[in-house]
Amino acid sequence: MSVVKHFIEESIKKTEIDEFLRNKLERAGYGGVDITKTPLGTHIVVYAMRPGVVIGRGGETIRDLATILEEKFGLPTPQISVAEMEIPELNAYVIASRVASGLRRGIHYRRAGYWALNQVSAAGALGVEITISGKLRGRRSKYEKFRAGYLPKSGDPPLKHIRGTEVHVKLKQGILGVRVRIMPPGVEFPDKVTIFEREKKEDSEETPETGAADASVSEKADASVSEKADASVSEKADASVSEKADASVSEKADASVSEKADASVSEKADASVSEKADASVSEKADASVSDKNRGTVK
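Given the sequence above, the corresponding structure tokens read:
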């Protein structure tokens, strides 16, 4: 058997198992199945809204399922485990089954479509698309789509993340098809651009380390500023004191010199004056004496 035929047969077998479990576990709120082959056998995980219905009383239902899967589909030693769906509204098959059930009960297709659309949107899905096709209002077939949110149609994100399924409903006017595609929350798209705003320094919160560093820096800056201020003040004070001292010394020296000069000048002047006076007086006296002597001699 070629590799291509092998994968085709495995895909066909998985589809048949999915369809069988869908019909068998409809009451349990069937939501899908994962099949993994291991060296010890085949591990099967069944997703359902009510796991108790799948397990059955004492595990009877799940043992019957294991027997049917081994005999009918040829799965070696199947090991079945049941997982409960956390948010059923994000499961495509659950939503499609609800829409199909509403159409089967006679609800208008638009009412059923918008009701399911609101449920999926309220569950937090990024995008959802529900398509109902068939003989909706007349003899001719048509389709109608109900969309909400962001749902890309091409590229890598739809292949990886979109959950989709199809369900068929047999009604009086014919068969209707329900297709549901859901983009779950938390998906990162490659074309999404995130813009980060630059944080302002004033609004940024200070950590203890940065606060301590800033405090030490400010203390050092204050200390250096104070030292410089003290040094400049002391220098200015010393300069002013020295200038004042020099000025006072020079003034005193000038005063003493001038006083001494004045005193010496006055003393000299007095001496010269007294000497001149004495000389003139003595000359006059000598002249008068000589005149008298002459008169007597005659």
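Helices lie at 3-24, 51-55, 60-72, 92-104, 109-122, 156-161, 208-297. Try to locate this feature in the token string yourself.
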